[in-house]
Amino acid sequence: MPVIAVVGGQWGDEGKGKVIDSLAEKAKVVTRFSGGDNAGHTVINPYGEFRMHLVPSGIFYPGVTCIIGNGVVINPAVLLDEIDNLKKHGVDISHLIISDRAHLIMPYHTL
């Protein structure tokens, strides 16, 4: 099975999200392997307009397994807000897998 990896060589704002969104429809798995909610990209599709920060943009395609990997730093409040917004717009999130080894931002980590 061929693998396509989209990796940034700079410090963000490179257009990775737009590329991933265009490739996601034909993928079997879309994985977010690192980073946190400090970055994001906008996805516009029939469900609406979404600002994605943690959930992989493959979530909009029912046959695509989406994984938030163990290298991702998860702010639980941000993740729950993102999931709630997706559900509110009718997006099925049952194919989202979150690593039990992902890092968590706890309230005492923020100033």
Automatic annotation (TrEMBL):
InterPro entries the record matches: Adenylosuccin_syn_GTP-bd, Adenylosuccinate_synth_dom1, Adenylosuccinate_synthetase, P-loop_NTPase
GO molecular function, one term: adenylosuccinate synthase activity
Keywords linked to the UniProt accession: GTP-binding, Ligase, Magnesium, Metal-binding, Nucleotide-binding, Purine biosynthesis
Gene Ontology, cellular component aspect: cytoplasm
Biological-process GO terms, alphabetical: 'de novo' AMP biosynthetic process; IMP metabolic process
Key word Nucleotide-binding present: yes
Keyword Nucleus: no
SMART domains per UniProt: Adenylsucc_synt (SM00788)
Membrane-spanning residues: none
Name under which the protein is recorded: Adenylosuccinate synthetase
